[in-house]
Design goal:
It contains 13 helices and six strands. The chain is an alpha/beta fold.
């Protein structure tokens, strides 16, 4: 096996000098719901919806509907925690923040819409009473192959693209595509909100808050939420549940790689196992601490299997990236 390159003192220093974020992560679905669903934060929700939907007349008032029974568990990995909103004209909006891909994600989005739309009528109601329903899906992963940051889907004729009805509308905002959106700046208000959601450090949030009043309100609201012990506990439980889920999924992938190399040389088998563990650890570190710096990624790529095992044991309980990767 080729020798792994030694790390310089500068690499090691940079690997531990990671600006940590102390605020709750609004990309975590339960934090997103608590933040934008709170009564006194309605102005933030209205600003976000106007930025995504570009309505003919700005939304001025919303009502956050009660959550559906059984949908608020912090350890619920199978169902996204949604934010259901009603407008004054009777339209309903389902806002979803999803931090990880889920099976049949596009079918789920359509089901969210169908659940809202079909739930409007009771026995004796007329179809003309149905009002438009919209799903806003914000993802911390790439769902589509296109480079478009904000995609909008409606029911249209395939040849002349005429709209069959305006009753169905699904918006998809993919946060990893934010850098391209910043360059084009076609939707400046939505880009600002995406920058708030995607900020990796407290310094980034502070800079955004200094220059944009609505994001100053959002940062202050996030601070209030973080000071609530119950909210912080729910966020930590949710984060640990997601980490556990990713750990399980990556373990399955790693075992699959190891099994696939079972007929190969012993050297290849060991390297494959190390690569699987390094990938698992990278995913967990990103989920817990945000973007992992290049120097830390180099440590993962060049570490031996014993070191990777130690770091994997620490990741669930460590408070900092440095605490995980210490020798």
């Amino acid at each position: 096996m080729a020798r792994r390159p030694a790390l310089s003192a500068t690499d090691l220093l940079h690997a531990t000098e990671v600006p940590m974020r102390t605020r709750l992560d609004p990309k975590l679905d339960i934090v997103f719901k608590l933040l934008f669903g709170e009564e006194r934060n309605k102005a933030l929700l209205i600003s976000l919806l106007n930025a995504v939907l570009h309505p003919p007349a700005p939304i001025e008032s919303v009502t956050v509907l009660p959550p559906e029974p059984g949908k608020d568990g912090a350890d619920d990995k199978g169902i996204a925690l949604d934010l259901r909103v009603a407008l004054t004209n009777g339209e309903q909006i389902d806002v979803e923040m999803q931090s990880q891909p889920r099976p049949a994600g596009r079918e789920r989005a359509l089901y969210y819409w169908a659940r809202l739309y079909g739930g409007q009528l009771t026995r004796g109601d007329q179809y003309v009473e149905l009002r438009r329903c919209v799903v806003v899906l914000i993802t911390d992963f790439n769902e589509l192959d296109s480079e478009r940051f904000h995609s909008t889907f409606r029911v249209q004729e395939t040849h002349d693209h005429s709209t069959l009805t305006d009753q169905l509308e699904i918006h998809l905002v993919e946060l990893p595509k934010l850098p391209e959106a910043c360059l084009t700046n076609d939707e400046p208000e939505l880009v600002l909100w995406a920058r708030f959601l995607s900020a990796d450090t407290d310094d980034e949030l502070e800079l955004l808050a200094m220059n944009h009043p609505v994001l100053k309100q959002a940062t202050d609201a996030l601070d209030r939420l973080g000071a609530d012990p119950q909210a912080r506990m729910l966020a930590e439980q949710r984060e640990l549940a997601l980490i556990s889920y990713h750990l399980d999924m990556n373990k399955v992938r790693a075992e699959g790689r190891a099994e696939g190399k079972a007929e190969g040389k012993a050297e290849g088998k060991a390297e494959g196992k190390a690569e699987g563990k390094a990938e698992t650890l990278r995913t967990l570190l990103t989920l817990k601490f945000g973007q992992v710096p290049d120097a830390a990624l180099l440590r993962l790529a060049t570490a031996d299997e014993a070191s990777l095992d130690r770091w994997l044991e620490r990741v669930l309980t460590a408070d900092t990236l440095d605490a995980v990767l210490t020798t």
